[in-house]
Known about the structure:
With 225 residues, the chain is an alpha+beta fold. The protein has one domain (3-224): CATH 3.90.470.20. It contains 5 helices and 11 strands, in the order E-H-H-E-E-E-E-E-H-H-H-E-E-E-E-E. It has helices at 22-29, 35-52, 120-124, 127-133, 138-159, and strands spanning 3-9, 61-64, 75-78, 85-90, 94-100, 105-111, 170-172, 181-184, 194-199, 206-213, 220-224. A hairpin with an 8-residue loop joins strand 7 and strand 8 (181-184). Helix 1 packs antiparallel against helix 2. The chain is globular. The chain starts with a strand and ends with a strand. The protein binds coenzyme A (COA). The site of coenzyme A has 21 residues, from strand 3, strand 4, strand 6 and helix 5.
Amino acid sequence: MSVVIRATQVIDDPRLLDLLDAGERERADRRSDPHPFITAHALLRRLVADETGVDPRAIVFEKRCATCGTDRHGKPHVVGMRDVHVSVSYGERMAVAAVTTMGEVGVDVEDLASADFDGFGSVTLHPTECAQLADLGGRELLGARAQLWSRKEAILKATGHGLVVDPSQVVVSAHDAPAELVEWKAAQHLPGPMRVSDLDVGHSDHRAAVAVLTSSPLAVRTQRG
Ligand SMILES: CC(C)(COP(=O)(O)OP(=O)(O)OC[C@H]1O[C@@H](n2cnc3c(N)ncnc32)[C@H](O)[C@@H]1OP(=O)(O)O)[C@@H](O)C(=O)NCCC(=O)NCCS
């Protein structure tokens, strides 16, 4: 089995709403710009449907928070498909979804602009990672930051911790080296071996990564919409 990734630019298409369930439509309604949410959740439904043969409208997602145990937020799972693991990520302009049976999965897409603030290093990076970026500037620096950030978030979405874990304690490989989790320094338990892969989502202003809790090498199939 591979990890199947589907990436698309955010679109405004009213037909996508028909794919969402009542809870998703309600959440979309609460947003000042609902299109990223709608695009992402329709994308995830279509991807899972295509990989499992189930009608996209018939898929039921549930959430579970690894920290407090509630079903009101946290990592998404597909009800009745225990072996099918999913993840979704979206920003103003891009949405990415992932599905696999290899293990718990996390996917993340980052706009370069989101990495453009003073203090990015102290909030998100380990000192060894800051040192690796020291000679970079301009767009190259933003690209490197966004790549490292997407790897860390993908890893923390695969474990289900999210940003409850300090991302500076999740040390990843250098931005221009193959993606991997180098060291888990966080106090929280790392559930198992982790594989990471950078993704090309077909948009030069974005960086993305996927992480899976598995010891097997990742075979990643990326589909772009
Ligand atoms: C997971 C997280 C890093 C995503 O951040 P983001 O960059 O804003 O959002 P992305 O677009 O990349 O991903 C959003 C999706 O991640 C998923 N997600 C949310 N929490 C998750 C978790 N703990 N693990 C894995 N995936 C999670 C959801 O599918 C969510 O989409 P939705 O809100 O539309 O349903 C962030 O929301 C987070 O850290 N959440 C956990 C906070 C937490 O657990 N606090 C403790 C509460 S007791």
